[in-house]
Amino acid sequence: MLIFKGVVPAIVTPLKKEGREVDLDAFGRYCDFIVEKGVDGLFICGTTGEGPLLSIQERKSIAKVAVERIKGKAKVIIQTGCITTDETVELSIHAQKIGADAVGVLLPYYYNLDDEAMFNHFVKIADAIPGLPLFIYNIPQCTCNNLTPGLFKKLIEKVESIAGIKTSNPDIFQIQEYVRIAGDKCSVFVGCDGLILPGLSVGAKGIVSGNASCFPEPFIEIYRSFERGDLQKAREHQLFIDKLRGALGDGYYVASFKKALGFRGIEAGSVRAPNRELYPEEISRLRRSLKELGLI
Q1: Which residue among 5, 60, 75, 137 is the active-site one?
Q2: Which of 154, 166, 258, 259 is catalytic?
Q3: Mapping DSSP to helix (H, G, I), strand (E, B) and coil, where does residue 75 land?
Q4: pLDDT band for position 251 (50/70/90)?
Q5: What is the CATH code for 6-292?
Q6: What is the average pLDDT across 196-220?
Q7: Domain boundaries in the chain?
Q8: Is the pLDDT of residue 9 over 80?
Q9: What is the pTM of this model?
């Protein structure tokens, strides 16, 4: 099994017509922009990409453009998780057919599920896409379900295609447990930007970041600094990323990411309801904060 590592921005999905239609042309140009920065992969249709708000057909179209545009330049990880197992299987099979490098599967959401239900969910998905690397995506603050270390261990012992976990749970102890369990079998990716340096320090192999969707550069810098063993530089980059998180709202409003991309000359369009656009005063504050950080 290929070990995934590095910096993987969780990218936005450009939308037009007040968020009612995916802008595939803008999405392709945006993929080019991010990949040219030197990232190791892209995480498509995740939380930042408004994946749960998109239709199945929209998600398939986005995945196809991503693979066609960047396959061979960076890893393409398609987030296929849905509220139902069958829909997740459908999107995962599609991702494999179009040539994605991996799928990232969000834990089922809304209903509180026990470990047996979640185990069965992931086994069924993996069985439907033999050989395609699968990342478990753990974000309990959004799904109300948390992947326990025990369930993670059970899954990687049962499912050979599990490539790792992307965890956005801000719990460094759980990250450390995931790393211990993963060993050399698969990768742990930190999805909480405030824990990048601590996560890398305990053995995580990479970063999946929503904030990197508009400013991948500092995330590349912290990762490369850590790889070189320059912990002082890595600490400096972590502090800078913490300021960036504050400026962008750390993903609370997807519109902040899209507006920041607009400041960089990248068309990202609208958000989809019930997400909302920024008020004029919020846009002014965002622009001022990013200017103070020297980013625009």
Answers
A1: 137
A2: 166
A3: strand
A4: confident
A5: 3.20.20.70
A6: 98
A7: 6-292
A8: yes
A9: 0.96
State which amino acid sits at residue 82. Answer: C
- Told to judge if 16 belongs to the known catalytic residues of this protein, a careful annotator would answer no
pLDDT in tens, 259-279: 999 999 999 999 999 999 999
Classified as helix, coil or strand, 261 is: helix
259: Cβ contacts below 8 Å, ≥ 6 apart: 268, 278, 283, 286
137 an active-site residue? yes
Q: Among all chains, which residue has been given the structure tokens 């995330």?
A: 219
Paired tokens of 290 = 């990013």
| Separation CA 33–CA 36 (nearest Å) | 5
- Predicted local distance difference test score (pLDDT) of residue 3: 83
Structure tokens at 127: 């069985």
Q: Which residues pair with 162 in a beta bridge?
A: 134
H helix and E strand count, the chain: 12, 10
Is residue 73 predicted with pLDDT exceeding 90? yes
